[in-house]
């Protein structure tokens, strides 16, 4: 990392290189002890990328096993471990921190005209906590892994599993605090540090989305933390909370787990929606349609998201009446999500759209998220879910949202703000190409899974009946294309840090305070506190001749 | 005052008001809300398990258990009072008095922990209650009892240490009024949690 950020020997040295946050100081200490939100964002970028590849490695194992109907590549136990580690690593160590910790950390202070977050030391501490959690996860991983599924359902996790459940639970518990502290930091920052003139309804929608996300992080994560503590107490010491033999109830575990983990899916998607709002307006050259609706739908999602956890438990034996309420509420969450999609579409309508890479990702997001969201409504159907629960249909549903939606948004955001973060432009041709590869690979991987699930293939088995093979092979083939789609950006983004063309202050002609700072910004972002005098996204529409 | 309000409004067009409280204080409030959810989840789990167990025991005799826990409650309440005094003294800039009041709070807090440990010891030794078993059947009675009171006691202990750091700093001229007030917020919160734990764990388990 460090070497790549040192001044490039081959780059033309202008008579005087301006100082910015990357060249303000050098050496390990200047990074590991930094309080600069931008450097901390890059620390996160490096660490979550590492975890992304670890999680990806396990996905490869899963897809390889499923090429043939027989469970021939690995034992059932090893397969269980592979998909569990894939889920645990991707969710807790990649997707939850991804956009907030990297882009949010980097951009929120700049977007609101501040020099840093409200608590810079706490911000660095969050990263260290995340790393300690990551280390414990790595320990769990290298000493046999864990095989319970990322959902850690009791009583399998608490009583029967012989794998490293405790270490995994401790790892998730620890990173949880990193998530809480990041959320807390963002809320205080957004309340307290806005530049003069930057009223709530002038905030970029990216900031609104992070505000809603942060609220979920602050309110939801402690519930996961205490649930994991109860699990550890039960497993290691024999407390009986989830053990029917001792008067406990495994369904209680599911309630507690999903009370966090359903909102957690919004921790993963909301920031991505924030990114998309920025991209769509910028590349349509139009003021966003229905600013207030988009902002408030983020808040509505955050609130409603806390009331629907029971839709994961329709077949758990919870009361049917509870199931009905959860079903209706789940349909209601669809509304604010749909509002966003409609508003983005309306923003593009009659805009002058340019097909730059970030916009291609935005298109990908909108399409794939729509499919993911609509299939969520299938699953929210009390009756239909009995057929679809724990089949590949569910797997396809959440991958459409989490990979097709959240990860696309993440990559779109990385591309959009890359010139700001590194001061370099990436090669546009390669970037568009890889965005298309990703889109094709993604659909080939996950669309067949809808069909498989609908036909009744259950998730989490290493073997399956012959008639499912064709679709599974398609899925595995898609996964290799998808893998290539992730590798290409890795390579050219890395390459561009050294050899990319120097980026101007505002390469996209975008609105927003971050584009008024130099690329890359100086350590304190602004020499003078900016004063905001206009609404968000005051794009002047270019007349078509 | 009126002019204060005016600047507050103009600030409001970017920053500050109407949440014109310091960042640290705001951060602590958020932490408290977050931690409140920890206890809420735990108490809801307890209620859930208790409601679904027809034979949940109610073993606490008025003497000694309820008398003892009432004394503990009074001790903790007093500690909140001394904490109020500490914050009050700090608002007058009287660091000496502030330190004394914080120390008093720490004494009450530690007394609470010690009394609680005695109560635990009594239950474990004399009544044979452990997290895994008890003479009255439902093992979850002990598991929830020790789980919930244990988590609360951990919070009190952390609070005592936190106050110790604040007191030491205030004595040496470090820390502002806000720092003391923020530590007070945490302390009152821990106190408030007990006001839920006490009735739910003790008063609702009185021997009839
Ligand atoms: C329109 C909003 C949504 C609705 C109505 C919805 C509905 C559902 C339902 C009913 C299930 C349970 C299916 C079953 O297990 O039988 C489910 C599973 C899931 N959903 Fe969604 N969902 C929505 C949005 C999202 C979003 C935004 C994400 C992620 C960013 C997401 C991620 C997941 C995951 C990870 C699971 C599976 C969890 C597991 O069992 O491993 N969903 N969804
Ligand atoms: Cu859900």
Reconstruct the topology from this structure.
The complex is a heterodimer of chains A (545) and B (208).
Chain A lengths: L1 H4 L22 H5 L4 H29 L10 H36 L8 H23 L13 H5 L4 H28 L12 H33 L12 H35 L6 H14 L15 H29 L8 H23 L2 H7 L3 H31 L5 H28 L13 H31 L46
Helix pairs in contact in A: 3-4, 3-5, 3-16, 4-7, 4-8, 4-9, 4-14, 5-7, 7-8, 8-9, 8-10, 9-10, 9-11, 9-12, 9-14, 10-11, 11-12, 12-14, 12-15, 14-15, 15-16
Chain B lengths: L1 H11 L10 H29 L10 H30 L3 H31 L13 H33 L5 H26 L6
The complex binds protoporphyrin IX containing FE and copper (II) ion.
Using the coordinates shown, work out and report the CATH topology of chain A: Cytochrome C Oxidase, Chain A
Percent range of helical residues of chain B: over 70%
The CATH topology of chain B is Four Helix Bundle (Hemerythrin (Met), subunit A)
CATH-assigned homologous superfamily of chain A: Cytochrome c oxidase-like, subunit I domain
Distance between the termini of chain A: 47 Å
Cα shape of chain A: globular
Number of strands of chain A: 0
Ranges of chain B where pLDDT stays below 50 over 5 or more residues in a row are 1-12
How many helices of chain A? 16
Helix and strand succession of chain A? Answer: HHHHHHHHHHHHHHHH
Tally of extended strands of chain B? 0
Q: Percent of residues of chain A in beta strands?
A: under 5%
Query: Largest sheet of chain A, described in full?
Result: none
């Amino acid at each position: 990392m460090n070497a790549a950020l040192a001044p490039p020997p081959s780059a033309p040295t202008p008579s005087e290189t301006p100082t910015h946050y990357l060249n303000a100081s050098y050496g390990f200490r200047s990074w590991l002890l930094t309080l600069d939100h931008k450097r901390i964002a890059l620390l996160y970028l490096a660490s979550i990328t590492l975890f992304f590849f670890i999680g990806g490695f396990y996905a490869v194992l899963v897809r390889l096993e499923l090429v043939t109907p027989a469970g021939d590549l690995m034992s059932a136990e090893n397969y269980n471990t592979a998909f569990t580690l894939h889920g645990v690593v991707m969710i807790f160590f990649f997707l939850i921190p991804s956009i907030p910790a990297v882009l949010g950390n980097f951009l929120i202070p700049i977007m609101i005209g501040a020099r840093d977050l409200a608590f810079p030391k706490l911000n660095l501490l969050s990263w260290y906590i995340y790393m300690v959690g990551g280390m414990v996860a790595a320990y769990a991983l290298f000493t046999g892994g864990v095989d319970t599924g990322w959902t850690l359902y009791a009583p399998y996790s608490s009583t029967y599993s012989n794998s490293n459940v405790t270490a995994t639970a401790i790892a998730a518990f620890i990173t949880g605090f990193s998530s809480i502290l990041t959320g807390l930091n963002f809320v205080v920052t957004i309340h307290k540090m806005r530049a003069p003139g930057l009223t709530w309804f002038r905030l970029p929608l990216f900031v609104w989305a992070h505000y809603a996300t942060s609220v979920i992080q602050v309110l939801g994560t402690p519930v996961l933390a205490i649930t994991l503590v109860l699990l550890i107490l039960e497993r290691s010491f024999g407390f009986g909370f989830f053990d029917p033999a001792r008067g406990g109830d495994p369904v209680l575990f599911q309630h507690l787990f999903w009370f966090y983990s359903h909102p957690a899916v919004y921790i993963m998607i909301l920031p991505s929606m924030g990114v998309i709002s920025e991209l769509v307006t910028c590349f349509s050259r139009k003021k966003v349609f229905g600013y207030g609706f988009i902002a408030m739908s983020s808040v509505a999602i955050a609130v409603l998201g806390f009331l629907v956890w029971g839709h994961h438990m329709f077949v758990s034996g919870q009361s049917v009446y509870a199931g009905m309420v959860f079903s209706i509420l789940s349909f209601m969450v669809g509304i604010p999500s749909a509002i966003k999609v409609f508003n983005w579409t309306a923003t593009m309508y009659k805009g002058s759209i340019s097909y730059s890479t970030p916009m291609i990702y935005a298109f990908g997001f909108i399409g794939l998220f729509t499919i993911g969201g609509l299939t969520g409504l299938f699953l929210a159907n009390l009756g239909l879910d009995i057929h679809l629960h724990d089949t590949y249909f569910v797997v396809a549903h959440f991958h459409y949202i989490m990979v097709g939606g959240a990860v696309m948004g993440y990559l779109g955001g990385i591309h959009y703000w890359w010139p700001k973060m590194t001061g370099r432009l990436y090669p546009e041709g390669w970037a568009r190409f890889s965005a298309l590869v990703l889109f094709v690979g993604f659909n080939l991987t996950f669309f067949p899974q809808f069909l498989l699930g609908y036909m009744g293939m259950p998730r989490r088995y290493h073997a399956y009946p012959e008639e499912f093979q064709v679709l599974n092979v398609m899925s595995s083939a898609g996964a290799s294309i998808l893998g290539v789609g992730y590798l290409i950006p890795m390579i050219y983004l890395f390459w561009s840090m050294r050899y990319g063309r120097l980026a101007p202050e505002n390469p996209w002609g975008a609105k927003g305070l971050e584009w008024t700072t130099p690329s890359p910004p100086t350590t304190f972002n602004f020499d003078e506190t900016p004063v905001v005098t206009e609404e968000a996204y005051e794009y002047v529409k270019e007349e078509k001749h | 005052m009126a002019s204060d309000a005016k600047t507050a409004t103009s600030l409001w067009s970017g920053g500050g008001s109407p949440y014109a409280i310091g960042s640290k204080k705001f951060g602590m409030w958020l932490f408290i809300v977050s931690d409140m959810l920890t206890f809420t989840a735990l108490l809801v789990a307890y209620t859930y398990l208790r409601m679904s167990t027809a034979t949940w025991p109610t073993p606490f005799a008025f003497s000694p258990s309820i008398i003892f826990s009432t004394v503990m409650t009074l001790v903790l309440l007093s500690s909140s009072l001394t904490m109020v005094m500490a914050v009050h003294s700090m608002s007058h800039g009287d660091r000496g008095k502030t330190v004394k009041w914080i120390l008093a709070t720490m004494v009450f807090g530690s007394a609470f922990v010690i009394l609680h440990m005695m109560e635990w010891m009594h239950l474990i030794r004399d009544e044979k209650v452990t997290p895994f078993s008890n003479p009255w059947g439902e093992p979850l009675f002990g598991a929830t009892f020790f789980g919930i009171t244990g988590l609360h006691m951990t919070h009190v202990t952390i609070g005592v240490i936190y106050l110790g750091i604040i007191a030491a700093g205030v004595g040496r001229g470090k820390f502002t009024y806000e720092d003391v007030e923020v530590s007070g917020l945490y302390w009152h919160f821990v106190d408030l949690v007990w006001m839920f734990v006490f009735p739910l764990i003790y008063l609702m388990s009185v021997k009839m």
